[in-house]
Structure formats: C-alpha cells, structure tokens
Request: fold
Amino acid sequence: MPPPLLSLQDIHLSFGTTPLLAGAALSVAPGDRVCLVGRNGSGKSTLLKIAGAEARADSGRRFAQPGATIRYLPQEPDFSGYATTLAYVEGGFDEGAVGDHYRASYLLEQLGLNGTEEPSRLSGGEARRTALARVLAPEPDILLLDEPTNHLDLPGIEWLEQELNGLRSGIVVISHDRRLLERLSRVTVWLDRGITRQLDAGFSGFEAWRDQVLEQEDMDRHKLGRKIVMEEDWLRYGVTARRKRNQKRLGDLHALRKKRKELRGAQGGVKMRASEADLSGRLVAVAEDASKSFGDRTVVRDFSTRILRGDRVGIVGPNGAGKTTLLNMLTGVLAPDTGSVAVGTNLEQVTMDQRRDVLDPDLTLMQTLTGGAGDQVTVGGQNRHVIGYMKDFLFSPEQANTPVGVLSGGERARLTLALAFAKPSNLMVLDEPTNDLDLETLELLQELLADYPGTVLLVSHDRDFIDRVVTSTIATEGDGRWIEYAGGYSDMLSQRGPSKVAGAVSAAREKPKVAGAPRANAKRMTFKDRHALETLPARMDALRAEVQKLSKAMEDPDLYTRDPQRFAKIMAALDEARGKLDAAEEQWLELEMLREELEG
Reply:
C-alpha cells in the first residue's frame, strides 16, 4: 500500500456547544477513489474543506505530503477578480506550469464554454462547469470534489465520469448521484454522528454494510439496557449499597447510566407520505403532433403521447433541449403552436420546482408550513402540530423560527418536499427534485413515488433516480424531436442502440387508441359529436358524485361482516360507475381535441 498523500486524524469541530466532527478521519493515497457519504448536515462539506485547507478544525491533525498538489471544488465558487472564464481556469495552475493555456481552453471547450464569458453573467450550470475546468486543468495529485454534478446535465455528467476515470489523481467526492459514486469509487467513507467509518469497497456495497453497522448498534444498546436493569435490580433488592465493598459496583452502575445517556443513536428517518386527492380521469394528458418554437428554433416537433393515470414519466435531455417547455405543454401551462394537447379532468397538481421558488426567504420555517396562521398544518385532511410535521423531515423544534433564507440547500429541499406532500394531489410534477437531497432522503422519496397512486411527471439528470422511479422515459433526439421509451434511463439507452435515432420509433411506448372514439383526422364533427361534447361534462359530474357516494359507503369497516350481499352489490356498482366515468372522460378528451384542431 502506498503511503497517503493526505491524511486527517482525530478531527474535532464544534459550532457553539454542538459537536459537528468528533474524531473524524480521512486518508487519500495516489490513485485512490474515495466517496464521502452521510446525511445532509453531517459535516461532509466541512470535512472536505479541512482536507483542502479551506477551513480549520478545533483539534486533530492534517498532514499533506510536501509538494503534493491539492485542488478543492467548492459548491459555490468565487469568481471575484477574474474578467473571463479562461482567466479563472488559468488561475488554478501553479506558477511556472507548462501547457496551461491549451489545457484550460480544451477543458472549457469540452464543457461547452469558449473562455470569453464574463463570470458575473454565468448561469448556475456554466459556473459549475467553469469551476470544474479550474480544478481538473492542473491534473493534481489530490482532487476534492463537493457535489461536482450539481447543475450539470446528463451529457456533462457522463463526460465528467470519463474524465475522472482517466485521471491518475487521488479523488475524494461528495455527491448525491448514486450512479457516479457506483462507477467511480473504490473506498467508501461514512460520516455519521461526527465520526467516520471506512468500507474498503465502492458505494455499491455501502447500504448493506451501513444497515449491518446500525443493526449491531441496536444490539449493543439493547445489551447495555439489560445490564443496567440487572444492576438496578441488585441495587434495590441485593446487599445494601452503603457497604464500602459495594461502592465500586454502585459506581459502575452510574457509569453505565452515563454511557447510555451519552450514547448517540442513529438519526431518525424522514417520514414522507403524500396527501392523496380524488382519482383523476384515466387519461391525464394526450398530445397529437404537438410542436412549439421560439423564434427560428423548434424545441418540440410533432410530438405525440398519451399519459394515463398512474404513469410515472421521466423527461431527459441536455440543458436547453426544451425539457421544461415539453413539461409545461403536457400540463396545460403552455399551448402548442401546432397540433394539440388535451389535459385530463379532475386533476389536482402539485409542483416541485428546482429553483425552490415557492419559498420566501424572509418567512420562518413555521410560517412557511402553516401559511403564517397558528401552529397547525393540514396534511391529508387532518391537522397536525407543525413541530411534529417538521420532525418528519428532520427539522428540530429549535428551527421553527429560523428564517428560510439561512437554511442550507439540503434543508430547503426538504422544506419544499414537506410543502409539496402536505397538499392533496393526484398529479405530481417534479423538476429536478433530487438537487441537494442526501442519499437516505432520496431512497425514501423513491419509495414514496413508487407507492403514489397518482401520476408523476419527472425532469431529472439523476440516472439512478430515473431508473428507480419511472415507467417510461421521454428523451430528446435533437432538432426538437422527442421519443418515448418504455422503462428508465438504462432501458432507454439499450433501446436506442449505437445510434441515437435508429430504431427509436419502434422502441417508443405505444399507447392504445380509445375504442369507439371519433378519429382525430376525420376533420369534421357530426351533430351527435357536438351534442356529446355539450352533455358529457354534466354526465361526468354525475358519475363522479356517484363514485364518491359509493366509495363512502365502502368505508364502513363492518359492512362486509354485517351484510355481505350489500357489500358485493355496492362493490359491483362502484366498479361499473368507475368504468362509465373513464369511458366518458376519454370520449370527452377525444372530442375536445378534435374541436380544438378544427377551430385551429
């Protein structure tokens, strides 16, 4: 084993009276591939800053081999003092280095920049790519990367993977991108409750190992508790503790109690459950040859799809491809220039925007959740005390009056989730929901979406998250063309084959036409069609009321035991009413699309 180029030993750091790091360690040798994992707020970024000499610990030892070059990628780079992106990248080289200009220009070009951009005018994605070029350009001995994929699109993430795998540098990376960690890492360091544990294997083996560690801790706590009970029993009923020879045993009991008090158990998990609204119609959105342009650029061209209730659809593509435009068209926010998009009935939509625009930085956490009224929050139709709901999302009671503006990125992400899941919905629109979420919160979000009875529309650059959540993937093929594939991101890649476009149409998910509905290309409406279009809304309302009435009757927990024949009769009537409602909604959608097309 080569000696480490960089090591941290017994690192302690506290903020006020709260310890953040309590004996953490980290070691990096040449060519190492280390992923640093842990919950939001566990101190990962702080430990990485200490490793990069960007922050100081209260105590402990940091050692770096003399002459070793170390580069640190912060989450928020500082561009002050640099007129152009090229100047900023070249500023990361050591004095006297050779080939600086070519290497810097090459990396900027690979990352979609030309070097003349003014740093003050960069978008979030451009700033992240510029900062990556700066730390990659010198090909340092040690590379410390804090969330390198934030604000990167899928092509950028895949390019970064290849670039990192080609470096000889020792690398330590913090990331919520599971796929990146699985492909890059060979050592996993887990920061938990102030201390670090090391697994000499990549991230793919981390979760099973972590669960074993936590199970062993539970067993140890249980054994300690039993031993305390035995000692307390002796203290009550055994030989009197006043005798001198028993004072040591009494002291041992006090030590055990102190140990249990000081033993810090694993942090609680995020408790997520989406508030459910009534069922939407069977058809959520139908697009027929829909196109949208901005100036001379067409971002959506002749796109058709049918999204059914319960579908979980992912939309993927590079930045600027038109993902948000397509999402807005499918939800009725944006009308197509040509073709048609019809949105289904009875939709209760909740949206999670990647910019967290729903959050007011001047409001406190409690005011945000309660709407500024009292201390109660309505979740799933029931009132809950806001402190209890905050705890579900890992906020402490002391944070209730904390302004939103001072929360960390991960805390703001969890707060946005808390707001979204408190609202009744049957359509969840998620625009980059994984930004700033830790891996454990991501797992729970995946489980929630898997059990969500409504429909999910998801825009994301997280390949693993897409694979775990969606039932189909809409991907850009360039020139405004989008194709829908069955399955997740990996399925989409395998269906595409060596060419981006070849075979895409046959691989796309085909959705059935509605039997008995008028053909959209008939270019005319009969008297019967017009009459149906006018009368169907009232019929759908009546059927919806009937479904609600029958569903309420089925809520009686003793109905089946008391009157099984009535139970069967109501169940059959409910199934029939739902079937009629689905058919009416589908017919109305088809007719409405035909009317819009004819009125053009």
Notes: Residues 6-208 form a domain with the Rossmann fold fold (CATH 3.40.50.300). The mean pLDDT is 81.
